[in-house]
Amino acid sequence: MNRQIRLKSRPIGAPTADNFEAVDAPMPSLGDPPAAAARTGGAAGPAWSPVLRRTLWLSLDPYMRGRMSDGPSYAAPVAVGDPMCGHTVSEVVESQNPAFRPGDTVAGYDGWQEFAVSNGADLRTLDRTLPVSTALSVLGMPGLTAYVGLLDIGQPKAGETVVVSAASGAVGSVVGQLAKIRGCRAVGIAGSAEKCQYVIAELGFDACVNYKRDDFKQALSAACPGGVDIYFENVGGAVLASVLRLLNRGARIPLCGLIAEYNATEHVGGPNLRPLLVNRAMIKGFIVSDHSDRAPAFAQEMTPLVRDGRIKYREDIVEGLDAAPAAFIGLLQGRNFGKLIVRVAAL
User: Fold this and answer.
1) pTM for the whole thing?
2) CATH for the 141-290 domain, from 3.40.50.720, 3.30.565.10, 3.30.450.40, 3.40.630.90
């Protein structure tokens, strides 16, 4: 059987366990392409060269909240009754595709299930000299998001101050470390004293401010005595409003995420955007899937940095596919510490 976690219903506000359903579905085969292939990147066309794989690791990410809803977005929602979407690391079990052999470890987008089949166009073979889970964290979509957002949109220059929210998370932690490598002052914003200590002591940021402090605005100002040149935005809401007050002329804001607003059931009142006008600042939203052309440069620069320990990372691992719903709900509440990954099976 193929264990799956399916979207049972669309959440109103914060997701609950009732929005998910665990199902033992039939095992996929190498025969005809699955009905959902076109939605999951595995559409076959006339030359169906299937690859069957077993999920080892499943990434849990904030963007999944948007895919649970059916409102307008940059990607199609998960259909009610389908397995939840998600990036995965898997082991090839059977293959009729010459590019993949049984035993290969591959990265793909198989979602919340134990087995999947496609024609292989959505897969890439992984180098096992590094932990394969890094294909879902520092060397995967979160790392590429940090790389593109900071370097292509933020365009950091030595001596500038870079502020990043959710600084202990999978994206924010890489943003700050890349900023330091580029000669910038890196200031993090995180949700606890423990996370701030990690950001400074382990990741090498110059400062980190706990946004839950009563004196958050004053502490943030003290951490940025020269103002803010780049703000890498992952959170939104009151944190964004506080940073806007500190923008320098010509500041840039890569808008990556707004996790504080994902569960809102009505429009959240926005911050004062006047500083963007007064300081000629630039804010640009971006979706990492639009920047796949940057993946080779990202891999070339980041892989040796991770291998040599110059870029550090932290993974928050939960055990078993059935634990995914509760872990995902906790992610949206900020309970995770580091990149949240589910260990579905052992290699």
Assistant:
1) 0.89
2) 3.40.50.720
